[in-house]
Amino acid sequence: MKTRSRKHEPVHSVTGVRDSLTADIRARQRRYVLFMGVRTLCFLAAVVTPSPWRWMLLGVAVVLPHIAVIVANGGREPTRDAPPPVSLPLRTQLSSEVDRTVRRRPSSRSEEAPTTP
To answer: Of all residues in the chain, what percent carry a pLDDT higher than 90?
Structure first.
């Protein structure tokens, strides 16, 4: 009897949960390494190319690290399937019935006992 490998079976997601933090960091590291690989190729190509192209490749090699850092530090990407954020009221509001009840209360002065002569 053959056993089937689980590597090729699709994984189904139940919710719109983001990727794990570890997966997100790994993806950002890959992008950064890709940018730095392109930068290294630009430096190597600048050594063997003629003058006008050499300066263009050196310019790209100088600017590319700044772009790579911005892309790598971009943070976690929002998911398309995520539910919208819940907005709660900042404070509760009294209904008009409660407001009328508070206004009808007798003041403490009128509750004083009358004096008899």
So the answer is: 34
Position with higher pLDDT, 82 vs 26:
26
Report residue 47's pLDDT band, with 50, 70 and 90 as the boundaries: very high
> CB-hemisphere CA count at 13 Å for 105?
8
Q: In the chain, where are the structural domains located? A: 20-74
Tokens 């009897």 belong to 1
Q: What mean pLDDT, rounded, does the chain reach?
A: 76
User: For the chain, what is the HEC assignment?
Assistant: CCCCCHHHCCCCCCCCCCCCHHHHHHHHHHHHHHHHHHHHHHHHHHHHCCHHHHHHHHHHHHHHHHHHHHHHCCCCCCCCCCCCCCCCCCCCCCCHHHHHHHHHCCCCCCCCCCCCC
